[in-house]
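Reminder to self: tokens first, then the designed residues, so the page reads top to bottom the way the pipeline ran.
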């Protein structure tokens, strides 16, 4: 029996497992499918909330710490696995922002670099953007990762750690609770016991706890995205070289020239089917920002399920009413964004270390926010498939 059992093999679950194992603990990770093939795979990989000034301080606080950690994480994974997760800090261009004063006030409070730039600056950075841009905002330090490669690197890291057991294709049927304490799980492959249980099940987390009369207001929010293949451009440039955001939609470049466009926001329960309506909408958004994409092939179109929580603030910590059970879920569009900090916070609590940040805003069982505030859906904030295509990471 290992010290810890982690339910869920996304980036949150795998990072938690690696941190606990590197601290000397035995860890079992259980995944219903294959590790890193749900929301962690489906996201865009931007290492910041898209409009960070529109989020609450608890989200901003984790995001600040996570951004500082991503460079270290990328180097550590490359050193230990040989996989480059393509962590790039090439900045983000914001177009048509209607709350710029709020953005600058936030940036000043946070000590975050943000500047207003003119059309000449924007087109020098990205010469193939559509015409008619007069100005925008520029966040020079913003980075991105190639999330399918991040998932592969984390999975390879776990394979190399002798005190980690990864059990895939093992859907959890129920928690095992004895005398009020969570001590394992029943899976389709049988029972697995552990000293403590950590739930990192993303959009599925609330359903599992509901069977034990524990309310965790996390629900799925579907996001659809598309991937374009682009040709080489003059001068050895790529068609797009940095993240561009306009009207709540974003374009993300990959190192090989591919370009992602995302994403939709749909509350349709656990339905991950793609739709022609979303495909058309994404295509129109992409071409409006980068007209040359009209002549490029759409390589793939997919959907993923984000774990939405009230106010977009994740639940991190001990689950009230069930001893030995912990949760790290509800990151909404910011699972990849917050992962290094959110997992570090939970591991700090588990190992009784001084926590990275004050854990109280993330405490499971905190008073539920107004349902209308779920994830800030009215503000167009930002992240967000299945396991068939690797977003061009071959």
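Designed residues (394 positions):
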């Amino acid at each position: 029996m290992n010290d810890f059992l982690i339910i869920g093999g996304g980036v949150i679950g795998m990072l938690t497992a690696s941190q606990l194992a590197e601290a000397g603990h035995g860890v079992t990770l259980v995944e219903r499918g294959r590790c890193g093939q749900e929301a962690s795979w489906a996201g865009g990989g931007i290492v910041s909330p898209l409009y960070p000034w529109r989020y609450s301080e608890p989200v901003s606080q984790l995001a600040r710490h996570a951004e500082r950690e991503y460079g270290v994480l990328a180097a550590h994974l490359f050193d230990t696995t040989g996989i480059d997760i393509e962590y790039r800090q090439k900045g983000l261009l914001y177009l048509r922002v209607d709350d710029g004063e709020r953005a600058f006030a936030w940036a000043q409070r946070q000590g975050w670099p943000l500047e207003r730039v003119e059309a000449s600056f924007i087109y020098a950075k990205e010469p193939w953007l559509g015409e008619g841009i007069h100005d925008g905002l520029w966040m020079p330090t913003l980075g991105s990762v190639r999330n399918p490669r991040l998932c592969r690197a984390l999975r390879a890291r776990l394979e190399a750690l002798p005190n980690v057991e990864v059990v895939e294709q093992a859907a959890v049927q129920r928690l095992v609770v004895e005398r009020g304490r969570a001590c394992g799980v029943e899976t389709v492959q049988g029972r697995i016991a552990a000293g403590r249980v950590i739930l990192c099940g993303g959009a599925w987390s609330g359903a599992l706890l509901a069977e034990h009369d524990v309310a965790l207001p996390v629900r799925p929010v579907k996001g659809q995205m598309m991937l374009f293949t682009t040709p080489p451009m003059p001068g050895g440039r790529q068609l797009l070289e940095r993240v561009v955001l306009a009207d709540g939609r974003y374009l993300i470049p990959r190192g090989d020239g591919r370009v992602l466009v995302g994403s939709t926001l749909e509350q349709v329960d656990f339905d991950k089917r793609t739709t022609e309506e979303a495909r058309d909408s994404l295509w129109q958004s992409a071409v409006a920002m980068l007209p040359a994409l009209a002549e490029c092939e759409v390589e793939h179109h997919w959907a993923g399920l984000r774990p939405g929580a009230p106010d977009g603030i994740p639940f991190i910590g001990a689950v009230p009413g069930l001893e030995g059970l912990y949760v790290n879920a509800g990151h909404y569009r910011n699972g990849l964004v917050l992962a290094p900090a959110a997992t570090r916070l939970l591991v700090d609590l588990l190992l009784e270390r001084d926590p990275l940040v004050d854990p109280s805003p993330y405490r499971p069982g905190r008073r539920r926010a107004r349902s209308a505030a779920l994830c800030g859906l009215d503000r167009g904030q930002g992240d967000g498939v299945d396991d068939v295509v690797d977003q061009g990471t071959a």
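The chain has a mean pLDDT of 90.
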